[in-house]
Design a protein that fits this description.
Blueprint: H1 3-27, E1 31-37, E2 40-56, E3 61-65, E4 70-75, E5 82-83, E6 88-94, H2 96-124, H3 130-154, E7 159-163, E8 168-172, E9 180-181, E10 186-192, E11 196-202, E12 215-220, E13 227-239, E14 246-252, E15 261-277, E16 282-284, E17 287-294, E18 297-302, E19 304-308, E20 312-316, E21 324-328, E22 338-343
Parallel strand pairs: 1-22
Antiparallel strand pairs: 1-21, 2-11, 2-15, 3-10, 4-6, 4-9, 5-8, 6-7, 8-10, 11-14, 12-13, 12-15, 13-14, 15-20, 16-17, 17-18, 17-21, 19-20
Length: 350
């Protein structure tokens, strides 16, 4: 036989053999190594996540002012400074007009007392009537009331020192040294120690799930994240005009930094169903599903996701309690594919 024919014949046999081997590989069933564990029913906390910041509580702050016009002579604190009860915050001098008003009240009271004494002597000598004596007594009473009101407002002093009524933190000082301010103008705002709450925004559709007293985990969003246990103490019944959300206040026992940002996980109930690791859940255009193993084959089971937390998910669906659940390696599976099972480590269970 000629060499060329021999070469062609050998080449043909090689092509045929390669095609036959490829067909064998194609038809030979493949299997995937997966980790499984028995399905189990359970429950997790149903949480609602919201974001907010630490702000003074409604009853946790105070604005100090003087109900008389005057001038700020000295400021002894700065915003953000911690102060204790009785510490000097600011020195204030009454204006000339306020000083004059106080002097007039003192003069009116002195004159009314003199008139009262004079009328009493005339009444004793029967030179004045009882009505005149009564009017003199009323004039003294009115003058005394006016003077007491002024001294209550101004402390009876032309130069006043404002002190902190409690331990806390200076919020703002909306005046500068030397400013002339009107009566009742805010001079210093204080936040009581422990008087901060975390105000978070809730979607209006979720408001009905909230209740005062629900437990909350508050996590700082700063560089050093810390978790605080808290409780809902107030829920608004109106939308915040800026955020268009429902504001809710969370009180915590730990000390917070005013203005610090937080993420709050509010415990609104419990979720019950099949408890699976989050990685065991898959999604496609037909919805959520998991894989179980029956007789060495992967079986797709369509499920409904009820809820989840950081580690586990609660689902509802026709899972078979006798068939193992695939918890790892499920991304490689298709319905009916052969699998090789390996029990999942205990630490992988939700």
């Amino acid at each position: 036989m000629k060499p060329i024919k021999l070469i062609c014949l050998a080449t043909g046999w090689l092509v045929f053999a390669a095609a036959f081997a490829a067909e064998e590989v194609k038809t030979e069933p493949s299997s995937v190594l997966v980790q499984t564990r028995p399905p189990q029913r359970g429950e997790i906390a149903d949480t609602l996540t919201a974001y907010g910041s630490a702000v003074p509580a409604i009853n946790g702050g105070m604005t100090l002012s003087v109900p008389a016009e005057g001038r700020v002579m000295r400021i002894a604190v700065t915003p953000g400074e911690a102060v204790h009860a009785g510490q000097t915050l600011l020195e204030f001098h009454l204006s000339a007009a306020a000083t004059s008003t106080h002097a007039q009240a003192v003069s009116a009271f002195t004159l009314a007392r003199e008139q009262q004494a004079h009328t009493a002597r005339l009444l004793a000598e029967q030179l004045a009537t009882r009505d005149q004596n009564t009017q003199a007594d009323k004039a003294v009473s009115d003058a005394q009331a006016a003077l007491d009101a002024l001294e209550h407002e101004t402390g009876g002093k032309l130069q006043q020192t404002l002190t902190s009524p409690f331990d806390g933190v200076v919020g703002t000082v909306p005046v500068a040294q030397g400013d002339r301010v009107a009566a009742g103008a805010p001079l210093v705002t204080l936040t009581r120690s422990g008087g901060l709450v975390v105000t978070v925004g809730i979607e209006p559709s979720q408001r009905q799930r909230l209740r005062v007293g629900q437990s909350v985990q508050v996590e700082s969003l700063g560089d050093d994240p810390s978790v605080h246990a808290g409780t809902i103490v107030r829920i608004d019944h109106a939308l915040n005009p800026k955020t268009r959300l429902i504001d809710a206040d969370v009180a915590v026992a730990d000390e917070l930094l005013q203005g610090e940002a937080f993420r709050a996980r509010i415990n609104v109930g419990r979720l019950n169903g099949w408890l699976v690791p989050r990685d065991a859940m898959l999604d496609d255009e037909d919805g959520a599903y998991v894989f179980q193993v029956a007789k060495g084959k992967a079986i797709r089971v369509n499920v409904k996701r009820i809820g989840s937390d950081a580690q586990a998910a609660v689902i509802d669906g026709p899972l078979d309690a006798q068939h193992a659940l695939v918890v790892q390696g499920n991304y490689q599976l298709e319905n009916g594919m052969s699998v090789r099972e390996q029990p999942a480590p205990v630490g992988k269970e939700p």
